[in-house]
C-alpha cells in the first residue's frame, strides 16, 4: 500500500482506473454529459460555471483534485488544485481548464498524457533536527467561513504534526498580510483575484529544488467565492468542510501527493455537505516514510553545493574603523529566498588605482527552512572612482559549514560585491565554480 500511496505521479485519471466504483460514477456522468450535449448545450473550452450548474439535478457536489507541474531553471513548482465538481459537470473539461489556467503540465504515472518528472518532495529541516518545524502563516483577509477558518487551519496543522511515527511538524506562525509568492514565507490566504477558474476551491503551490526535491516554499490559496463551513451546524449540501480541505492541502504542503486509497485524506475526491474525517493509515504511512524518526543515510541530501549561485541586495554600515556589517536578501538555487548576514574586516591595503583594501567576510545565509550556510570570503575592494566612496570587491568564497540540509556542505566559487559607503547600499553575487 505504501508504494501505491507514495507521493508524486498519481494523476487523477489513474485513480479512477483503480477504483471500480468511481469508474461507474464517471461513466454515468459521461452519459449524462452526452445527453446534455444532444439537448444542444455546448460547453465552451473555457468552462462556464453557470452553464454547468444550470444543468444540475441533484445537490451533491464532490471534489476532484488534480496535479500539475511547471519548471523554471533550478526550481520546480507543483500545483495541486482541488476542484468543486457539481453534479453532471464534465469533470474532464473542468480539470483540463484548471490545469491550463495554472500554466502547468499534468502529472501522470501512465504516460498517456504529457509526463513531468516529479521528485519526492520533502522539507529539508527535518534531516538533522527532529524538533524542526515548518512555519505557516494565515492571511484572514477575505475569509468567508462563519466564525473564520483559523481554528480549522490550526487543527489540521496539529493533526499532521501529531503523527508520532513522523518528525514532520507544521506550526501556526500567526497572521500575515502576505499572499502566495515564492518568498520563503508559507502563507494560507484568500486572494482577491482568483486566476484558477470558478471551479477551483483550493490550490496548493509548492516550490522545490528540481534536483533534490527539497521544498523551499508552500502556499495555500482558497477561493472565497465558494462555500465552506467550519462548524457542522453551518453545513449545507453544496458547502465543504474547510477543515477537511485544509487537512488535504496541508498534506500537499508536507510534500505528499495523492493516494489511491479512498479512505485517505489524500484521496483526490470527497463529497460536499458532510463533515470530513481525520488522517487515515495510508496518510500516516506516507508522512512517516517522508520524515522517519532517527537518521537514515539514504535520506541525506547532497552535501556538495555544486551550483550555489545567489545574488543579494541590502545595506552595509561601519561597526568599527576597519570593520563593517551588512544584511541583505536574495535568492539562489540551493537556498531559495534567503537572508544574508555578513561582517567584513579589513586585512590590509590592496593594489588598486585609488583606495583599496584586502578584506575577509564572514557570511551566513539563512534559508526559509531556518537552516543556515556559512561561507568565508576573501576579496580585494577598490574604490570605483576617487572620492566616490563606492567600493567594488572581487573575491572567492569557501563554504565552511551549515545546519539542516547544509550540514557538512562543501563548495567554493567567486564573489562580486558593491558597497556604497555613503548611502549604505550593498549587493553581492556568489557564483559557483563547481567541485
Ligand atoms: Zn490534492
Oligomer: single chain
Report the strand count.
18
CATH arch. level architecture of the largest domain: 3-Layer(aba) Sandwich
Instruction: Output the structural class.
Output: alpha+beta
Q: What gap, in angstroms, lies between the N and C termini?
A: 40 Å
Description:
The protein is of the alpha+beta class and 435 residues long. Helix content is 19%, strand content 34%. The chain has eight helices and 18 strands. The strands form three sheets. Strands 3-1-2-7-8-6-4-5 form an eight-stranded mixed beta sheet, with helices on both faces. An eight-stranded antiparallel beta barrel has the order 11-12-13-14-15-16-17-18. β15 and β16 (390-402) form a beta hairpin. It binds zinc ion. Zinc ion is lined by residues 65, 80, 82, 248, 252, 258, 268.
Topology (elements, then pairings):
Elements (H helix, E strand, L loop, with lengths): L1 H4 L6 H7 L1 H19 L10 H6 L7 E11 L2 E11 L5 H12 L2 E2 L27 E5 L11 H12 L8 E6 L11 E3 L10 E10 L5 E8 L5 E2 L10 E2 H13 L26 H10 L19 E11 L2 E10 L3 E14 L6 E12 L4 E12 L6 E13 L9 E9 L4 E8 L3
Parallel strand pairs: 4-5, 4-6, 6-8, 9-10
Antiparallel strand pairs: 1-2, 1-3, 2-7, 7-8, 11-12, 11-18, 12-13, 13-14, 14-15, 15-16, 16-17, 17-18
Helix pairs in contact: 6-7
The structure holds zinc ion (ZN).
Summarize the entry for a quick read:
This protein is α+β, with helices and mostly antiparallel strands.
Any key phrases for this structure?
eight-stranded mixed sheet, Collagenase (Catalytic Domain), elongated, alpha+beta, 18 strands, eight-stranded antiparallel barrel, binds zinc ion
Amino acid at each position: 500500500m505504501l508504494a501505491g500511496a507514495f507521493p508524486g505521479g498519481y494523476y487523477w485519471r489513474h485513480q479512477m482506473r483503480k477504483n471500480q466504483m468511481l469508474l461507474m460514477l464517471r461513466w454515468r456522468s459521461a452519459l449524462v454529459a452526452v445527453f446534455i450535449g444532444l439537448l444542444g448545450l455546448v460547453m465552451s473550452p473555457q468552462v462556464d460555471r453557470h452553464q454547468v450548474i444550470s444543468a444540475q439535478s441533484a445537490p451533491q457536489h464532490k471534489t476532484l483534485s488534480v496535479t500539475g507541474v511547471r519548471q523554471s531553471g533550478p526550481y520546480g513548482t507543483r500545483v495541486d488544485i482541488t476542484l468543486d465538481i457539481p453534479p453532471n459537470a464534465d469533470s474532464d473539461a473542468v480539470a483540463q481548464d484548471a490545469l491550463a489556467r495554472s500554466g502547468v503540465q499534468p502529472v501522470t504515472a501512465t504516460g498517456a498524457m504529457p509526463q513531468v518528472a516529479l521528485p519526492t518532495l520533502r522539507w529539508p529541516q527535518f534531516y538533522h533536527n527532529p524538533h524542526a518545524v515548518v512555519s505557516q502563516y494565515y492571511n484572514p483577509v477575505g475569509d468567508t467561513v462563519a466564525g473564520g477558518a483559523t481554528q480549522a487551519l490550526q487543527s489540521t496543522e496539529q493533526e499532521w504534526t501529531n503523527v508520532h511515527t513522523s518528525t514532520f511538524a507544521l506550526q501556526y506562525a500567526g497572521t500575515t498580510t502576505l499572499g502566495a509568492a515564492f518568498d520563503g514565507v508559507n502563507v494560507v490566504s484568500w486572494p482577491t483575484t482568483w486566476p484558477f477558474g470558478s471551479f477551483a476551491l483550493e490550490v496548493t503551490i509548492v516550490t522545490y529544488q528540481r534536483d533534490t526535491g527539497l521544498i523551499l516554499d508552500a502556499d495555500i490559496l482558497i477561493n472565497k467565492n465558494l462555500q465552506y463551513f467550519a462548524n457542522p451546524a453551518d453545513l449545507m449540501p453544496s458547502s465543504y468542510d474547510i477543515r477537511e480541505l485544509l487537512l488535504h492541502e496541508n498534506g500537499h504542503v508536507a510534500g505528499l501527493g495523492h493516494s489511491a486509497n479512498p479512505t485517505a485524506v489524500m484521496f483526490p475526491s470527497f463529497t460536499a455537505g458532510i463533515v470530513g474525517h481525520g488522517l487515515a493509515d495510508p496518510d500516516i504511512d506516507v508522512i512517516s516514510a517522508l520524515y522517519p524518526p532517527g537518521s537514515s543515510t539514504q535520506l541525506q541530501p547532497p552535501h556538495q553545493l555544486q551550483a550555489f549561485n545567489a545574488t543579494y541586495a541590502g545595506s552595509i554600515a561601519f561597526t568599527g574603523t576597519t570593520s563593517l556589517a551588512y544584511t541583505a536578501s536574495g535568492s539562489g538555487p540551493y537556498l531559495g529566498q534567503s537572508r544574508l548576514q555578513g561582517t567584513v574586516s579589513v586585512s590590509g591595503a590592496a593594489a588598486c588605482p585609488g583606495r583599496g583594501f584586502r578584506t575577509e567576510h564572514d557570511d551566513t545565509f539563512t534559508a526559509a527552512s531556518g537552516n543556515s550556510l556559512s561561507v568565508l570570503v576573501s576579496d580585494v575592494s577598490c574604490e570605483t572612482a576617487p572620492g566616490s566612496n563606492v567600493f567594488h570587491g572581487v573575491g572567492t568564497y569557501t563554504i565552511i559549514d551549515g545546519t539542516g540540509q547544509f550540514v557538512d556542505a562543501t563548495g567554493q566559487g567567486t564573489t562580486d560585491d558593491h558597497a556604497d559607503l555613503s548611502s549604505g547600499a550593498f549587493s553581492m553575487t556568489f557564483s559557483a565554480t563547481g567541485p
